[in-house]
Amino acid sequence: MADEHDAPTAAVVVDPNGTVSGWSEGGRLLLGWTAEDMVGCPVTDLLVGPAPSGFPEGHQSARGHTGPVPLRHRNGSTVDAVVTAQPLSGTGGRALGHVVTVQRWESRPVIADRAFEQCPFALGVYDPGLRFLWINASSGRVIAHSEEQVLGKHYREVLPEFDRTLFPERDDKPYTDKLAEVARTGEPARLITVFRPRGSDYAHAWATSIWPVRDAEGTVRAVANWGFDMSAEYWARQRLLILNNASGGIGRTLDVIGTAQELAMTPVPRFVDLVSVDLFDEVLRGEEPPSESAGNPDDAIGLIRTARHSAHDGPDQAAGPTKPVTHSPGSVAARCMATGRSTVELAVDPGQGGEWAFGPGLAADPAHWPAGNPVIDASLAADGLTGRITVPLRARGALLGVVAFSRLDRPEAFTADDLILAEELTAKAAVAIDNARRYSRERTTALTLQRSLLPQGMPNQEAVEVASRYLPAGTGAEVGGDWFDVIPLSGARVALVVGDVVGHGLHASASMGRLRTAVRTLADVDLPPDELLTHLDDLVLHLASDLQSTGRFQTTGETGATCLYTVYDPVTRRLTLASAGHPLPLLLSPDGTRTTVSAHPGPPLGIGGLPFEATEIELPEGSLLALYTDGLVVSRERDLDEGSAELLRVLDPRAASLETLCDTVMDATLPQVRTDDAALLLARTRALDPQHVADWDVEADFAQVPRLRKVAVDQVEAWGLEEEAFVTELVVSELVTNAIRYGEPPIRLRLIRDSALICEVSDSSNTAPHLRRARALDEGGRGLLLVAQLTQGWGTRHSTQGKTIWCAQSLTPTASP
């Protein structure tokens, strides 16, 4: 017997009576019977069993094919064959019988034809002009046409919807164009095609292959394709892509509103057409959400519409807070927030026998609906919705609000997998929103603390004209430890201070408060700048040791700071300064000279063991000093030197208003992206009129006291301060007497008329006086107590030449210089 791949085809002619009238050589090769054996015999003699439907038995019209049909071989064996009968007709339509073809069932043409016909994949063959040549049954079901309806027709004529892509934003080429491209180039193609079949409300995804069919010479004679529905896998992958986009798109900033807007924009338009995010007002303010507000679904719940984005909005449009919204009692949103469970609403029931996937005939949704879902609500259609998923927004056990995912333009009903996706997106956003809320609360606390520790108003002093600005870091960074201060000192002097604590957050703000308090305390002692920084350095070292953990957990608080401390004396117009790792001040002279003050900055505070050096310079009256922190000038694009040079360029010594100049400087020098606080302190120096200063040498003789009382009173009266003469006479007498009695020569008396009347007595002794309570019979011990009672302030300051005891009397407004 011939090989099955070369098995012959038997041709048999059967007359109207069912008798064999013709027998081909193929019949002998296939069944062993010769023409002499079969001609004149009933064709049914070939059958092993009963005649199948469509088999020509005589006096009946048979058409079509059967198989497999068991036929009798001459050697007694059975041959399974496919029998095809076509009627023969003569003139006038007279029946002449049938032509019957017989092929072995296992032969390649037959088995291949049946395999292609019964293939669950959609198969089709088209000529190079894309006319239908053949399709299998699966393909006919997909395109909703039979083979007879499409044979010879153009592909675009039968399937015009394939001339467009379902998702234009993906820039996909229409499927028909891909077929034409393969026919033209002869290059096969593989692709995934998404389309909505006729009669279906669901978009299907098909994995397809297209290849050219060539003849023996290699010429493309046809184009074939196959495809299978991979909708479940495709949409599962799309959900994963949305979640992947959410990983990088939600929670990029520590901002509640920004995160809500990111949640609203991420699933549109790939998943839904409209997303709204409603949050409690307390969440927007960084406070704890109200735990009792969503406990009863029968209560109305007031929220803030924080974000709303639809497929019709621009790519970057996500409306922020618009107006409060109220979810009525018993509403889906109220129930979701009360129960903590999501709800899916569908406008119609697309179940059709329990199948919830992508249309009729497709596998059921692999996910399972949770209890109570979905809810069929025909009223959604009145709002233009085909479905809505409402998910409570919860994080760390706290209810923050509610999110609604809605479909308007697309007819697909939500699936259980869609619910899982919506809950995953909401859960990710909830954590990010709660993180932003917590950060906002901490930042607000730190900022409030920091602002409360900064000067609320400039103190009354006449040595310099000052203006300042402080700007915390942007919302993407924590509050830092930048600070500044203006401290009036004795002798009409003033201290200008600026500093920066390492780190950010509450720790930095608290450390800044400690340092500012320490500087004020040390300034009251009237320490020179270098000595003050030395004491401040010791304090930072003590703070660092206090932060050392004694347990198994280590603190995350950073230590260390920089500080610039300057003292300006309007009497001598001398500026004394020392720096602990802080940028040196910028100096602009009245003649237009611009420079950085030349000094030797010491190490940052907290290093310990290294000295600080004081520098003293004389300033022309009207000089402009700029003290600042590095957050004002340093950025990713420029270093400290470049930023300081830019700040020096922007400063204008002729500016009439320092307040206006501060605004100009901040606008011009602040980096676009700020990660640190910025502080600026501007000071224009003044010089005290020499006519308002009087001083005298004092001999160490008590007999000189009456003379000094008189000259002091005369000078005060010459200044027009007759009301202050009596107190001046008393304090001069007490301070000079104490200096002669307890101090060491040389002794000097000085009066300064500033915003207050200042009396100073200096000597070369370093022994500091102190108040004490004198007993009833004591002859002395009441001098300083008397001075303290009669004046508004007194104190001692030390220098390398000794000490100075000073006191100040307030002047009446009419007596001010």
The helix content, as a percent range, equals 25-40%
Sheet having the most strands: 7 strands, mixed
Estimated structural class: alpha+beta
Helix tally equals 19
Write down how many β-strands occur, each being a DSSP E stretch of 2 or more residues.
Answer: 32
Shape: rod-shaped
**Cα separation of the termini:** 134 Å
Radius of gyration: 49 Å
Ranges with pLDDT <50 over ≥5 residues? 1-5, 352-364, 549-558, 774-780
Main sheet: strand order: 13-12-11-17-16-14-15
Portion in beta strands: 25-35%
Report the average pLDDT across residues: 83
Would you write up a description of this structure?
It is a single chain. With 817 residues, the protein is of the alpha+beta class. 28% of the residues lie in helices and 27% in strands. The strands form six sheets. A seven-stranded mixed β-sheet has the order 13-12-11-17-16-14-15, with helices on both faces. A five-stranded antiparallel β-sheet has the order 2-1-5-4-3. Strands 7-6-10-9-8 form a five-stranded antiparallel β-sheet. Helix 12 runs parallel beside helix 13 (506-524), helix 15 (640-650) runs antiparallel to helix 16 (658-669) and helix 17 packs antiparallel against helix 18 (725-742).
